[in-house]
Amino acid sequence: MIAGPFACHAPGMAKTGVASAAEGEGVRCNAPSVPEEPDVGVLKAHASVLSQEQFEELAHLGLRVEEALRLELINGRIREKPIPDGDHAEIIAWLTRLCTQIDAGWWLHVGQGLRVEKYRKGNARPDGCLASSDAFVGQGEWADAEGVLMAVEVTSRDYDTNRRDREEKPKAYAEAGIPVYLIVDPNDATWHVLQLDGRHYVETAKGIFGQEIPMPEPMGFTVRTAGWHPYGGTGGTSA
């Protein structure tokens, strides 16, 4: 585990790369705080009184009303997933092209709904999830995370991105057994690789745009990010 201002650690653990063994705890990636902004016109997160089946029906109806309305159920709370911008889409496209070049049988599925968390009681839509190209055939809008090799989240610029992508999503994806979680943060031009260790993630690599991303097994390839500078903020410099 790499120490530093972005080191990931479970609550109460020393920053040595050893995750807490307490069941149900997730890692937290400390990051510079994003100033809170007025939540105007956005569905605020709130505790859900719906069953998972009812939530999935609500999410489906929401898409019929507005295609951009993508709901998630994480940590018992309903959230609206932010609409991606052009930089976000370019990063995902870059990763998709690379993954298919490495293995023609892979695909980075964008927006696929997954049942996550302990007992699969949560619902998430990763920005991308790496799996075989036919992994979700016949599974519908919400699928089991079995067979997913990696979840990818490209952070947004909304006030809630730190809690959502660095605290709640790691816990949910780890409990679903997804081996690798990649966080790409255009706000400060950084990336973070989290690898599953038991029921928790441990950050195994981090860097800035321009530095290569060493992807652990089951991928085992390297992502060159020299071309990512136009998509990031002022935090990254050339490697």
What is the structure about, briefly put?
The chain has 239 residues and is α+β, with helices and mostly antiparallel strands. The protein has helices at 52-65, 86-102, 161-175, and strands at 8-9, 28-29, 46-47, 71-74, 77-80, 106-109, 113-116, 122-124, 128-132, 142-144, 150-154, 180-185, 190-197, 200-208, 213-214, 222-223.
List keywords for this structure.
single chain, 239 residues, three-stranded antiparallel sheet, 3 helices, 16 strands, globular, disordered N terminus
Radius of gyration: 17 Å
* Cα end-to-end separation: 21 Å
* Tally of separate helices: 3
Give a quick account of the main beta sheet: strands, pairing sense, barrel closure. 6 strands, mixed
Structural class: alpha+beta
Biggest sheet: strand arrangement = 6-9-11-12-13-14
Which stretches are poorly predicted, pLDDT < 50 over at least 5 residues? 1-42, 234-239
What string gives the helices and strands in order? Answer: EEEHEEHEEEEEEHEEEEE
Can you offer a commentary on this structure?
The strands form 5 sheets. A 6-stranded mixed sheet has the order 6-9-11-12-13-14, with helices on both faces. Helices cover 19% and strands 27% of the residues. The chain contains 3 helices and 16 strands. With 239 residues, the chain is an alpha+beta fold. The protein is globular, with a radius of gyration of 17 Å. Residues 1-42 and 234-239 have low confidence and may be disordered. A hairpin with a 2-residue loop joins strand 4 (71-74) and strand 5.
Task: Set down the secondary structure blueprint.
Blueprint: E1 8-9, E2 28-29, E3 46-47, H1 52-65, E4 71-74, E5 77-80, H2 86-102, E6 106-109, E7 113-116, E8 122-124, E9 128-132, E10 142-144, E11 150-154, H3 161-175, E12 180-185, E13 190-197, E14 200-208, E15 213-214, E16 222-223
Parallel strand pairs: 7-10, 11-12
Antiparallel strand pairs: 1-2, 3-5, 4-5, 6-9, 7-8, 9-11, 12-13, 13-14, 15-16
